Amino acid sequence: MYRQVPNFITVGRLVLTAAFFVALNQVPARGEFGRWMWVCFGVFVVAGLTDVLDGYLARSWHVESAFGRVVDPFVDKILICGAFVFLAAPDFLGPRATLLATASSVAKITGIAPWMAVVLIAREFLVTGIRGLAESKGIDFRAQWTGKLKMFAQSFAVGAVLGNLATAVHGGHYQPITWILWSRDVAIWVTLATTVLSALDYILRSRKILAD
After folding, report:
1. Among 152, 163, 182, 195, which one is most buried in terms of CB atoms within 10 A?
2. Measured between alpha carbons, how far is 85 from 116 in angstroms, rounded to an integer?
3. Per residue in 116-145, pLDDT tens?
4. What is the per-residue pLDDT for 145?
């Protein structure tokens, strides 16, 4: 039974991911914006911790499975890419977008522009295609340190964006705390850099495969 524990945790993270998106989707309709953003932040953090836990248990107990190898990265991609899509959406803040007078666009409030979400999603399509081609030829193409660094940076960036929104919006006014805002912006740009670095790493590792 214990062999299935990591898989159960992975499924639990999928449920948390769905709950996270439901929470984000409710943001425009909620009056207590900051409190509701803390709910989103909490759900996201718990989902991220389960990602660490299921991988740790699978490796420690030597129970890595085909299910985990497929579903675990799938849930990661849905959680992170979905968060970027939601946070970059023009209607994410709903009617509050017109009330936050100090910011002229949702991108300035969340720190995430639509093109940033495109970069993340494009990288995932590219890597999924390369990995599928490699495995079809019997080549092990597991994630390397660049992929793990990318995932950590992306998770931190989403958490920083949610934390900034939870602490910066008060009564229809956008008043960010300087160090949180700075941390958010640095995290987003580090995320973009590590995402591109990870994509380049996969391309370089797959040169021989792509040349066939």
Report:
1. 195
2. 9
3. 999 999 999 999 998 888 888 877 777 788
4. 87
